Amino acid sequence: MPAPENTFKSALASGKMLYGCWTGFADPYATEILATAGFDWLVIDGEHAPNDLRSIMAQLQVMDGKSSMPIVRLPMGEAWLIKQVLDVGAQTLLIPMVESAAEARDLVRAMRYPPEGIRGSGAALARASRFSDIPDYVATANDQMCLLVQVETVSGIAALEEIARVDGVDGVFIGPSDLAADMGHLGDSSRPEVQAAIEDALSAIRAAGKAPGILAVDHDTALTYRDWGAQFLAVGIDVVMLATAARSLRERWRDG
Ligand SMILES: O=C(O)C(=O)C[C@H](O)[C@@H](O)CO
């Protein structure tokens, strides 16, 4: 029995449009609710949400068997972190702040067992192998790994084509907030020069034969990014949805 199919990787390769949502509560109960909404994918955010290895694992557990496919974002692309999160069952990783093809190649190797890579072989006790219930897990896991790199700095954009063409990079996510910040427009990704950079980047990723991804919580902006070629498109953040709805409800009763 081989390693479980990475259905997100398969869907990405099919070219299908995939709509996603960010999860930031770092709680399996909230993620389980979100997984009933019908999104194609959910990001379990280990960069900007208070997640740790156990909370990431708990969210992977509640997503098992759901139609929404999990993507785990790590705070940085460190090999030891990648080893741990793959062993608890992640198959698709989103790694922020990638700025060179060399970094991307290192990430590909960190996600794969030898000889293709350096992933430590501890599958015997790992959730990923169903605790050794998948006897040929180590022999088949590499093919199910899906790497999404985030390009979100001026340096990263300059190296975008080389990064996208790295064998083993399945998709490139453009981070509008961090890119705007690095371009000198902290907090404002709507600036024309930032938008131009995003449009060119999404096009270049497609030209390299890889899947472009991005996030936009504003509906019209998300439509624009889809028109510009985004294939895995995040259209919401759970924390923002709750906070916005709660404040709006209270405002409706402000004057009784
Ligand atoms: O730079 C960005 O934009 C992203 O990487 C997405 C954000 O990190 C996401 O957390 C929403 O703010």
Automatic annotation (TrEMBL):
Its cofactor is a divalent metal cation. InterPro entries: Aldolase/citrate-lyase_domain, HpcH-HpaI_aldolase, Pyrv/PenolPyrv_kinase-like_dom, Pyrv_kinase-like_dom_sf. Residues 19-243 form the HpcH/HpaI aldolase/citrate lyase domain. It comes from the Bacteria. It comes from Roseovarius aestuarii. This is Hydroxypyruvate/pyruvate aldolase. PANTHER family: 2-KETO-3-DEOXY-L-RHAMNONATE ALDOLASE (PTHR30502), 5-KETO-4-DEOXY-D-GLUCARATE ALDOLASE (PTHR30502:SF4). It catalyses: D-glyceraldehyde + pyruvate = 2-dehydro-3-deoxy-L-galactonate.
